[in-house]
Amino acid sequence: MSAQIGVTGLAVMGANLARNLARNGFTVALHNRSVAKTDALLEKHSGDGEFIRTETLQELVDSLEKPRRVLIMVKAGGPVDSVIDQLVPLLEPGDIVIDGGNSHFQDTRRREAALAKKDLHFVGIGVSGGEEGALNGPSIMPGGSKESYAALGPLLEKISAHVDGKPCCAWIGTDGAGHFVKMVHNGIEYADMQVIGEAFDLLRSGAGIEPAEQAKIFTEWNQTELASFLIEITAEVLGHTDARTGKPFVDVVVDAAGQKGTGRWTVISALELGSPTSGIAESVFARALSSQAAQRAEAQEKLAGHEEKIAVGEGFVDDVRQALFASKLVSYAQGLDMLTGAAKEYSWDLRLDEIAGLWRGGCIIRAELLKDITKAYSAQEEPANLLFAPAFSEAIAGALPAWRRVVATAVQLGIPVPVFSSSLAYYDGLRRKRLPAALTQGLRDLFGAHTYHRVDDDGTFHTLWGEDKSEIVAEDTH
Ligand code: 6PG
Questions:
Q1: Rounded to the nearest whole angstrom, what is the distance from the C-alpha of residue 360 to the centroid of ligand 1?
Q2: Beta-sheet strands, E only, within 345-419
Q3: What angle do CA 312, 314, 317 make, to 5 degrees?
Q4: Where is the active site (predicted)?
Q5: Which one, of 170, 173, 165, 137, lies nearest residue 153 by Cα?
Q6: Alpha-carbon span 358 to 374, nearest angstrom
Q7: Which member of 32, 138, 162, 395 lies 3.0 to 4.6 Å from 10 by CB, making a disulfide possible if both were Cys?
Q8: Per-residue pLDDT tens for 206-225?
Q9: Which DSSP letter does residue 433 get?
């Protein structure tokens, strides 16, 4: 008997994907650097389906039907390269090497190009949904050659989450496209969690609502247009009481948010693309600020606040809900806009309707909202920005008064709301007729002869600031 797919790297994500594949009827060859992990999996879960135990990569390769499919599930970075280096000499043209970790898309592009030279396919797949998703149906974002997808796609689609009968897995694009889209998913995940955190802080510090009570509010919100996995688990975390102290769980957790890097990568990439992904950037910075424990302690001693002691009104809770929704929409709009920029830059034909569709189930940012986003991008004319789709421009217009009130109140109360406020600034910036960028251009021209364009004439100009301030036609140094 030969296996349809091999998995090397049997830590939790690898093990769960292997089990998911077996449960879906595929014969899975298992390999891990230390055989003990393979045996532990087999001992506990052999009932999941057909597994083939292997001890070496050679055995793993020998156990596979052709073209071979080998899924690497090791830590992103050096370990992936090391497994590829060991694997490649054992493979034959047409075989498919798959990396299911959170790899950087540029690494995936490099690996894909290197393996293509050896007539091997390299597929970088973004897998979202954590451990539970890997076992029961993740959202899967595969990038690589179309040919490799024909051989691999059916397996991935089968083990993915399904929404309305459709798999949450579709071919994303060539080389690093899958990992890129997963990276942006994570950036949105950061922003999603940050806006939830800002809402929590506003309700607690602004309206004095304790976590247990907020758990009920979030449960109610989960019945609105905010309905999503993250809102659902927010209610669970806020409703949890610490067994040791009897305090709300959130009060015994150190308020320093960790990060493994995908949010940071999203922002670095957005900066490289010139994509205004401010909500995601603010989320990453908010985590960084939260982790500066020493400076935060000193700031509490040394920096004045001058907060205003205003009482929040009756409708505050609902205002926060609306501000949360509007800010969340902006984060999605920015993330998707970044995908449009990346598609141009890296020559990917990214289908935003399909991407939004496969985020509808299995992944961390799964949300009701994605149904409408999918619809918006399936329209004959794709909106240039998600916010331009009528359903969303109307939704934001409805939320706008509340959003402005909440941001203004937060500022008065001294409650930091970096994503609520930067998303509003993005929205206002986008729709503003004249931006102070004209002044920036004037300043750049004065100190560095960087030139400018005129509103009333074609061409590129420079003012002779140090001379008689006359204007000359210039070479574009924009
Ligand atoms: C997912 C998650 C998953 C993981 C990230 C978060 O889609 O399943 O995004 O990939 O939770 O590693 O990473 P941070 O540690 O950076 O929050």
A1: 17
A2: none
A3: 80
A4: 182, 189
A5: 170
A6: 9
A7: 32
A8: 999 999 999 999 999 999 99
A9: S
> Which atom of ligand 1 is found nearest the CA of 258?
15
Residue range 227-271, pLDDT digits in tens = 999 999 999 999 999 999 999 999 999 999 999 999 999 999 999
Q: Which residues contact 118 (CB under 8 A, 6 or more apart)?
A: 88, 93
Dihedral sign computed on CA atoms, order 361, 362, 367, 372: negative
Element (H, E) at 98: strand 96-99
Q: What is the pTM of this model?
A: 0.96
Q: CB under 6 Å to ligand 1: residues?
A: 102, 128-130, 186, 189, 258-260, 262-263, 363-364
Do residues 41 and 175 make contact, with C-beta atoms less than 8 angstroms apart? no
Determine if the peptide bond prior to 248 is cis (ω within 30°). Answer: no
pLDDT(478) > 70: no
- CB-count burial class (<10 Å; 0-12, 13-18, 19+) for 337: buried
| pLDDT tens column, 458-476 | 999 999 999 999 999 998 7
Is 143:129 a contact under the CB 8 Å cutoff? no
371 is in an annotated binding site: no
Residues 230 and 192: beta-carbon distance below 8 Å = yes
- The residue annotated as part of the active site, out of 112, 189, 198, 282, is 189
Residue 326 near residue 399 (C-beta atoms within 8 A) = yes
Catalytic residue among 112, 157, 182, 282: 182
Distance separating alpha carbons of residues 293 and 300, to the nearest angstrom: 11
- For strands 166-167 and 162-163, give the pairing: antiparallel
Ligand 1, from 16, 99, 102, 229: best to mutate by most atoms within 8 Å of Cβ?
102
SS3 call for 122: strand
